[in-house]
Design goal:
Structural class: mainly alpha
Radius of gyration: 17 Å
Largest sheet: 3 strands, mixed
Order of helices and strands: HHHHHHHHHEEEHHH
Number of domains: 2
Number of helices: 12
Length: 211
């Protein structure tokens, strides 16, 4: 997927997430997401931050407070943005859906898989569906597979052959793990407990053993 098509998919996902969020109850906004220790509100805030990133100075300040941990920095910034009202967070997403700004230390390829995965982080625990174009999920999966930190997918999933059943996408070698490309993307990004029931093949028992 080229850069322009990726940005189009990012915009579509941001708008889809905003539409889903706009229909949530107050209780759903506070519900746990698939991201450990993050509420739906926190994930929504994070997604809105990507299109409207803080200044380099603000990020540097957070990095100092986080003692150099990117994960902690991410949490600090997201929870601070999460103090905004649900209405404001939805408006932020819609108003900046077409933004092509990229946070420092990231890239447009990372922004693509980030918005796709976090959309599922919100929708799945609430029992809601958020459709994702197969080509966007496949591009995101390829990017995560190629990355090392923070997911280390190649290392975690060594000895498994992953194949999408709804997209021309496959990686790895070994015992078969097959399923929808979105489920494979969730697996690659560490959402193993959520992804495993959606997958089939001889390698699936190995996934649950490693989780």
């Amino acid at each position: 997927m080229d850069r322009d098509r990726s940005w189009q998919a990012i915009e579509q996902q941001r708008l889809a997430i905003a539409g889903l969020l706009a229909g949530l109850t107050a209780e759903q906004w506070e519900a746990p997401s698939l991201c450990t220790e993050w509420r739906v509100r926190d994930v929504a805030a994070h997604v809105s931050l990507v299109g409207l990133p803080p200044s380099s100075g603000a990020m540097l300040g957070d990095l100092v407070r986080a003692r150099g941990s990117f994960h902690v920095l991410n949490t600090l910034a997201s929870r601070r943005r999460a103090e905004r009202s649900p209405e404001r967070l939805v408006a932020d997403l819609r108003e900046n859906a077409a933004s092509r700004k990229v946070p420092v230390v990231s890239s447009w390829r990372n922004v693509l898989f980030d918005v796709v995965v976090h959309g599922q982080d919100i929708a799945i625990p609430l029992g809601l569906e958020l459709p994702v174009p197969a080509d966007a999920a496949a591009a995101g999966a390829t990017r995560v597979w190629e990355l090392g930190w923070p997911f280390w997918a190649k290392r975690r999933l060594r000895g498994l052959a992953l194949t999408a059943t709804d997209a021309p996408w496959s990686v790895g070698a070994g015992d078969a793990v097959e399923g929808p490309i979105v489920a494979l993307l969730l697996l690659l990004t560490g959402r193993t407990a959520t992804a495993a029931p959606l997958l089939s093949g001889a390698g699936v028992p190995r996934l649950t053993a490693r989780a």
